[in-house]
Amino acid sequence: xxxxGRCAKVLPSELNKVCPERGDDPAMHPRKMSDFEVxxxxxxxxxxxxxxxxxxxxxTGSNEKENLISWIPENIRKKECTYFVESSQTSxxxxxxxxxxxxxxxxxxxxxxxxxFLGKEWDPSRHIQEMPTDAFGDIRFTGLxxxxxxxxxxxxxxxxxxxxxxxxxxxxxxxxxxxxxxTGGAKNFIMKPRLKNIFRQGLVKxxxxxGAWIITGGSxxxxxxxxxxxxxxxILSCSHKEGEIVTxxxxxxxxxxxxxxxxxxxxxxxxxxxLDEENQGSLSCxxxxxxxxxxxxxxxxxxxxxxxxxxxxxxKFISEQTKVKGGVAIKIPIVCVVLEGGPxxxxxxxxxxxxxxPCVIVExxxxxxxVIAQVAxxxxxxxxxxxxxxxxxxxxxxxxxxxxxxxLVEWTKKIQDIVRSRQLLTIxxxxxxxxxxxxxxxxxxxxxxxxxxxxxxxxxxxxxxxxAVAWNRVDIAxxxxxxxxxxxxxxxxxxxxxxxxxxxxxxxxxxxxxxxVRLKDFVTWDTLVYLYDxxxxxxxxxxxxxKVLLEEREHTAGSKMPRLQLHHVSQxxxxxxxxxxxxxxxxxxxxxxxxLSIPVPHIKLNVQGSSLRSLYKRSAGRVTFTxxxxxxxxxxxxxxxxxxxxEIIWAQSQDCMVAALACSKILKxxxxxxxxxxTTDDMLALAEQFEHKAIGVFTDCYRKDEERAQKxxxxxxxxxxxxxxxxLALEAKNMNFVSHGGVQAFLTKVWWGKLCVDNGLWRxxxxxxxxxxxxTNLITFSREKRLQPMGCLTRLRAFFTAPVVIFLMNILSYxxxxxxxxxxxMVDFQPMPSWREYLIYFWLFSLVCEETRQLLxxxxxxxxxxxxxxxxxxxxxxxxxCAILVFIAGLTCRLIPSTLYPGRIILSLAFIxxxxxxxxIFTVSKTLGPKIIIVKRMMKDVFFFxxxxxxxxxxxxxxxxxxxxxxxxRVEWLFRGVVxxxxxxxxxxxxxxxxxVNFNIDQCSPNGTDPYKPxxxxxxxDNKKPIFPEWLTVILLCLYLLxxxxxxxxxxxxxxxxxxxxxQEHTDQIWKFQRHDLIEEYHGRPPAPPPLILxxxxxxxxxxxxxxxxxxHHKLKEKLEKNEEAALLSWEMFLKENYLQHxxxxxxxxxxxxxxxxxxxxxxxxxxxxxxxxxRTGVVEQRLGSLEDQVHQSAQALRWMMQALRxxxxxxGEDLPAVGSSKALDFRxxxxxxxxxxxRPPYHVLARNLLYPGSHTLRFxxxxxxxxxxxxxxxxxxxAYSADHKDMAVQDPFSLSLESLLKINYNxxxxxxxxxxxxxxxxxxxxxxxxxxxxxxxxGRGRLHCFGPNHALHPxxxxxxxxxxGSIIRKSLKKMLEVLVAQYPLSDVWAxxxxxxxxxxxxxxxxxxxxxxxxxxxxxxxxxxxxxxHKGYLDDPRNTDNAWVETVAVSVHFDNQNDVEMKRLNSFLxxxxxxxxxxxxxxxxxxxxxxxxxxxxxxxxTLLGAYY
Length: 1508
Description:
disordered N terminus, six-stranded mixed sheet, elongated, alpha/beta
């Protein structure tokens, strides 16, 4: 069994599920459209799972360590040499080594004499075996602080998916948003200091901002050292954990110095590693600044480059993975960054370009990087062997003599191919305009590659935007994506808008709003459910939602967790906003059509036109957006405490004051339950910020129009649960808002009712006592101020229904009640109640009725239970209930003759409580109101203080009692001695017997028998003198008084003082806030005072009970008409915009902000000045080039004019002046020729790709200048390759023997095989035909069937692209075409429906696959009627020196959409294979077809004058 097979065998089943096997060729597994539709829920994505594990990243937790110890040996192998064969070379110390490079003692014991291996030839495939790895765990670099990383030793044959699984699942790494492969010089090299700083800063910035992985060689030398130092500098300057950068070093195990310290079969946790550069010799040390190491082992020692194949496979595997983030799926992009480098680096760049990986070359770093950078802007035809030789002689001075002529040819060919793929090549030049930073260059390289990549429709732009969102680089999005090159529809941005919201990227949300995204279209019901489905698991709101879902599951007795719906969200929001608000989202009825059962936003964007846009397709007969989309998004952002996002969304809101106050309320409620103190502080800060926003908007509104501003306070907001601004501010305890002058003016206006607020209080009291004075001018009414006359009854009603009058009458009534109550208790308390006492009972009954009315008054429909809970929350209501219950208890005892006296005592206590209730009246006073708050808070201080005081009182009392008195058994005297006397001692009432001086035995009872005297202290039996230790009791008394009287009492005073100052600072705010409750109470209170209030209660009973009239809203609420409300909200929104603009101006004028702006400008100016020297040369060159173009155009115009004049006989030839330098003109013409040549290469290109398709054969490198057969090329020695097609009946022999070749007749019909070329006669040499287009680097016929021309047919079937109404769609004023394309099995690209013609056949086999047999003759007729657009040589990768493809391309165009033949063609299209795909595709230059097929499409579009 092979090593690879063994490794695959031990993979656990769960790994096979996580990382399914994939073939090396993606074309082996064609993918269907359905494979790309649905992405797993974001909560189950690897990114969110690994994020939760990241906390235990370093060091490894015990559970993870155990999993790692068991998993790694089962799945990851190392390689060991099992057969010692003496090598001709020796070690550095001169000792004998094996062919593998290891010493004899470094082999296994049985390796010296293995019985199964015969002979002395050392064969790595036989003599090196795999076994479980013995080096993995944490690596700590000795002497470098706490630098700890992860490492593992792996076999060179380890599948990449196993390593990726290790990194993401066991090492806890998030899947990257970008993969940066840094390659270059492996030895130390010198870079310019400025370029070094730019590279380091840019590389780290792009990795940190995009969440990228950086992959290097991992050693402490060359480019790897540069990367490590860049990461080190960033970590030193970064103080937060978010600055961690994943830097993965992939090195060869056999070249690592001190690797013995890493060997630990059970894992090193950690393994100590010493970085010793002085003694490393030919080996290399690991770089201490990398975070992870993958050490590739092939069983050898000291051989570099072993890791390159595995690194290439791993990078390719990672780049094929899809990462889901924010509901958007992206394939992980990869970019190669090159510094300096040698021959190996050139191969790496070439392979990267061949695989479609964009490369960034840092010019100025040296060697290979500079060679490519200096020729990158030249036409490929100008890149000659001589030029490359010249560059190498300058840049490789030390090793230039090692370059043979063959090497120069190979380098020239590879550099030509690299430069030819300009869309994948980016040169970073220091000081280049628009590319001052390496991070910008890297991201621009990816965008350039993506932009030039073939694609269907708008996939390309979608992909670029997804990358920018994933990287969180809004600057790149603005400069590279949202340009004039592409028109973005707002609906196209909806998927990435959802991704930006979920990923908390406010800058992108702001950008998308600027680009025209309408929240009304974006926020659908399903989108909102999807957003709440993807709340962060650490969010408190998420846990509250889960609790609601669990309760519903328990209520329904179901086993499955119910799916989250918006009514669940509404349930949690109502808890946060208060029950005075109505549910924001209604619970769906059973009759309602069910919502979508799958989370539609989970749709990928990365293939074949599938996109999240399907989420926003409108379903018939269904509400697609909620009442207020801005509100919905604002709540979603606020409950997650996302400050910037909430501010951006709030700026879009219309009902902005209510929104700000509601957000403040939600945040304050969440802060109460949040356990994390930092998050709590952030929530409270954001709540305060929203309160300030509401105050700012209301201030502007109040300045403009007081009346309309006050309407905003009481307007019922339907969007926010039928609540009001004022109600939200009160429930959130937003004292700053409530104490605003405008709010207070409104409350004062409510307080005075229909009276003018400038009426003096003495006037009101006078008119209240002598109401006929109302008909004089003593009292003024607001209507009279507006010159509206009032009648007598109207004046009387307006006066006595004013809250201030109701309040004063209730005060008068309450004082009368208390006076009468006191009189009865002290003077008139008879065995039989008098009429005064009955009046008190009647009065109390009216008070009970009023409290009952307040309890049952429910205009908002909250229910009795909720109203009862709200009623009980009020302190004064609790006091009322207490007083009434005590009074009823006293009354009950009073009516029973035997308990008359206890009844009077209880009624006396009730009188005290009624008097305390009188304090509520003082809340209306600006002076006394805050004092009540002070008293309430001081009571809390006293309560906690009593705990401290009780410790001293009880301890001293018990000690004193035990020392002085022996066996006191009377409980009441025990309490007196321990607690009561100790408490009185604090205030100076010291017991006379405590020191024995004033002891009098007559004041006590010797035996404790007298119930009215305390028991005597311990005394002498003879003279009755105290014998207790007086000195001890005196010391205890002094200490007790010291701590209680001086320390604790002063502490209490200090606490009182702090409370007083704290309240006193906010006296005005507190009074303004608390007066609202009093005003609202008397605004909705019946006008008559007790006991006359019973008349009002009777009236309410008749109206509600008998007449069934609904309850009138006495609360401060006002529901406006729709037109009035719309106008009011528009006015509020206009003033909100003014407020935001004013805030921006203030921020700009802020001193600190101005200093920061100035500092930033100075930095930019210094940067520009620093770059000026570097840029100057480039600018001058640009200007000279522009000037040269203008001179050339002028010279051409003058030459034409002179030639025209000369032609008309105005001058002789001798007089013709020379216009422009001939040398300059020649250079210009050559330059123009070069550019034209770039557009269309003069020689075949695809036929010279080094790797021949479908094989492992490498072509001989043929530079452009050596392609023609006429050009001498002595070195040319191409390999031979001819494939054996066993499934083909007709094919030429695959051997190149002359005998078999002489049987072939070239340039004529050879039986059924047509060997005639469209280009005329071709040469035949040694029995083999020569490719008429020149050398290809390969002899034989390759994968083609015949030597010489292999004929093919490619029909190009087109039609006009039309709108739904049948009109032709145009672009750039040209009509657009649709072309018929097909994707054949075992192929991952699309192609024209055609191919090679079999001998004797008129239609290609591939064309027959997609057409039914009965339509073949008709299609031949269509081809005869079509137009031939190409006939001749086709640049095909399969072409060789002796076999090539020639094709005929015929344009079949259907001009009429009702063409009968087109309809028949569509009806006869079929697929003989279920994996064969056929489609009509819009024709443009980015359509993903074979390159040679795109040339044919270009010709067709030119023929028809269509857009291309």
